[in-house]
Amino acid sequence: MQDDVTSPPLGLDINPSSTTTHVGSIADRDLVTSLFAQNPSIRHILHTATLHKPHIESHSKDAFVETNVQGTVELLEAAGRLGGRIESFVFVSTTSTFGRALCPAKGAPPRGSTSPSPRAEKHLRRDQSGGRGRVPPRPYPDGLARRRAPHEPFFQEADDDKERRDALENDNLKLLELCYRRADIADLVSACVCAMTRAKELRWARYIISAPSPLVKDEATLALLNENAADAVEAHVPGCKKVFEDAGWGWLDRIDRVLYTRYDF
């Protein structure tokens, strides 16, 4: 939460850290309300608090609902009560809420726009909470613009897909995924700043954030990605197959999505 996109943010987290200015939960209604009351200069809300894939084994379903759904509702409600003071509400989610919907049948091209089909509990709860931003429990003032920015973060833990985990080293798999789904911290930060500055102009919208892909979205590339990912990447980055071979690295059999990329550098 902050007053403008260049000022130091007010950070709320359940754990203390170098960027946490207040320790507590976004699901705590009294705490959230008091923070807005004590900081009248707040104009933007960047909501990233969530339980993710690594928490599936350590947290209950109730904890996922409390953080990913109820916490989002509390923030939206509190922002709505402030009238036109809040200029943007940016909800950073995960593209995994699209889940199986982004895995087309063999031989069928991936689609860049589709309806979510969550793979796991946390993906379902994030999709549910994202929907609350679009269909809120009460009418919010016209001044409250909401954006949802799904992304696919990197976790240090090994992939939860045993077949992929056994087939490729962790670094090998993560590098390949940067071709089509993951994001660098710089990509995420710049996208969030853009969302905050343009929220009032664009109103509600959902955007995918990902690292710049070396691939292009044309029929031939999409078809090849679904059959032979190595040849598809080699066609756009000549010599990469030799680099992988020298490193003893392998390739994914297929890549299930490639979206439009705008280069900033």
What do these coordinates show?
There is one protein chain. The protein is of the alpha/beta class. The chain has one domain: Rossmann fold (3-Layer(aba) Sandwich). Helix content is 37%, strand content 9%. About 12% of the residues have low confidence.
Class by SSE composition: alpha/beta
Estimated helix fraction: 25-40%
CATH superfamily: NAD(P)-binding Rossmann-like Domain
CATH topology: Rossmann fold
Distance between the termini: 28 Å
What would you call the shape? elongated
Mean pLDDT: 75
Name of the top-level CATH class: Alpha Beta
Proportion of residues in extended strands: 5-15%
Assembly state of the chains shown: single chain
Q: Please mark out the parts with pLDDT under 50 across 5 or more consecutive residues, or reply none.
A: 117-147
- State the strand order across the main sheet: 3-4-5-6
Helix and strand pattern:
EEHEHEHEHHHEHHH
Tally of extended strands? 6
List its traits.
two-stranded parallel sheet; 265 residues; alpha/beta; four-stranded parallel beta sheet; Rossmann fold
Secondary structure layout:
Blueprint: E1 12-13, E2 22-23, H1 29-38, E3 44-47, H2 61-80, E4 88-94, H3 121-134, E5 146-151, H4 162-167, H5 170-177, H6 185-202, E6 205-206, H7 219-225, H8 229-236, H9 240-247
Parallel strand pairs: 1-2, 3-4, 4-5, 5-6
Helix pairs in contact: 1-2, 2-3
